[in-house]
Design goal:
746 residues; mainly alpha; two-stranded antiparallel sheet; 36 helices; 4 strands; 64% helix
Amino acid sequence: MQHTDGREARIKKQLQQVELSPSSYDTAWVAMVPLPGSPGTPCFPQCVEWILLNQQDDGSWGINEFRSSANKDILSSTLACVLALKKWNVGHEHMRRGLHFIGRNFSIVMDEQIAAPIGFNVIFPGMLRQAITMGLQFPVRQTDIDVILHLWEMEVKRFDAKKSCGREAYMAYVAEGLGNLLDWNEVMKFQRKNGSLFNSPSTTAAALICNYDDKALGYLNLVVSKFGSAVPTVYPLNIYCQLSMVDSLEKIGISHHFSTEVKGILDMTYSFWLQRDEEIMLDVATCAMAFRLLRMNGYDVSSDELSHIAEASAFHDSLQGYLNDTKSILELYRASKVTVSEDELILDNLGSWSGSLLTQKLFSDGFPRISTYAEVEYALKFPFYATLERLEHKRNIEHFDARDSHMMNTEYLPCHVNQELLSLAVEDFTFSQSIYRDELQYLDSWVKENKLDQLQFARQKLTYCYLSAAATIFPPELSDARMSWAKNAVLTTVVDDFFDIGGSKEELENLIALVEKWDEHHKDDFYSEQVKIVFCALYTTVNQLGSMASAVQNRCVRNHLIETWLQLLRSMMTETKWQVTQYVPTVEEYMTNGVVSFALGPIVLPALYFVGEKISECVVKDQEHSELFRVMSTCGRLLNDIQGFEREGSEGKLNSVSLLVLHSGGSMSVEGAKKAIEKNIVTSRRDLLRLVLKEDTVVPRACKELFWKMCKILHLFYFQTDGFSSPKEMASAVDAVINEPLKLSS
């Protein structure tokens, strides 16, 4: 327990105070800045001293947190440090060892298969040219040096050949490799309010060396005073790092352990968002992630703030766009999906072009990094509204890269507690699974005790019903909510099958009469053994859950549960009568009845009482409560109708697809009806998300979340087939969440 507490304390500390690693490369460039008015004296002698004190035993410089062998990042850092020492004519032995390290590993420079920092083909050869000009000798064949310098010349010619805003941003970003070839007036257009270029100490230092600027010097003074003798590769980076951590916590299912810290970060981010702070707005990935996380956590953020990157052309004019940065495009794509209105054309547009770019990347040669490929493929295949949280958590834990680094003009690690995050997530998920297995075992005995397994007509869907509870209402402490959800899901499946195939007209009428009587029923009132089993299971379970919910709520809620069931049975009876009399309802009649007969009421509404919120009778009767239920059920009814159209048609049943065709007078085909319904599903889903995310409403957020969770379950179950009716469709999901242990990648 003490170990867990220490781990959580370290994670909380990192959430509250971002730790940025020192960058040898950036420190070297800052070390090269001369004192204003005194070109022979370093402006930041402490950085020069740091270089002298921090050379590795093999002669290299670089904080190698990522791997043991030499790489392009370390070569770049080592050359920058050698240049800094040469500039101030100190550390001759350090320089000699550094040059020998570069010589021994020079083949890496020319190996295109090895990952490189941004702009390596410009910056490294540019520094090499500068080193040769300064009289440094490399233990490398001249032909190899000539090849590298030729590459640099080709890159420079490419810049001249085709001008674009994105290219200009890139040229400014790789200023270290271009020096006086740049038009510094053009470069300084990219200067930020804090005086930096791209929040990069190295790029800002390179600009300052060639073109003195008070604000740039002020930025470097600030960074050195904050971090001491060694500076990070990006500053400020607080918002991006903190949002990345919040995103990771949510993705691996442990954010509920850090709710106070997460709220603090999101509150701060929202404040910066409202101020249109450059740290958010000028970085595509940060802006998109901030929008998505803020909106999904209930903050009022307008998609209008993404207008500056709504068009693909605007994205390509940015540095990330010029670099065709996959992470930035993926963040934009994810942000585009959290739409809550048909009027959010910016998000629709964003989703269209970012989705196309990601699809192109998947099918292009040389897509980098297998983990990124899998992430893109998954995002395109499974929209966030068609996923089960616990299934997502498991996948994300299994694919979690504790060494996940970001490559800028040097490599850096945004989060220093990734290993702690992973171990906590593994422990949390494994513990949850043991609880889920116990709960499922109990539910299995509950089914048998109530003789539900003896009903020949009923689909045995206990594991699916429990999956929908465990995979969404996942925290271990919400056991009562899961039990309520799962038991009522099993009972609604039994009752649905009873009305569809299992029961005669007399049995159905008898069941409704018994529920209407409830406590007044008599043991001689049962028309058949089937009715007795169904009613007794209902009566016992609803009374038990009603008693538990009443204790939690400090008021009697049993009657609400009984009334919810009665409404369902009556709506099912209406549909049975329509079928028997061959009555063709209007689409409006069908949907008004269908949102109730789809049977989500008894599953979702009682569970609201068990998620830790007090719900008064006024809340239950409020229009918002009714609207949440209506929109959720509309989504489910229509999704089911599209997937079940052929099956239900063969059984002589009408649904919204066939009714649209019938009432169109021959003007609408089946495909046309399905497209119209799909559009209605999108509208209902957006409406539901807007209701759920809206702050300061009558229904508490934790309760509203259950409506959205059910909507996600429905989208997954009916994603490509009627997954709920298909025996195999969801079997792997059941095993993944409840039975199969985590398989961590090495």
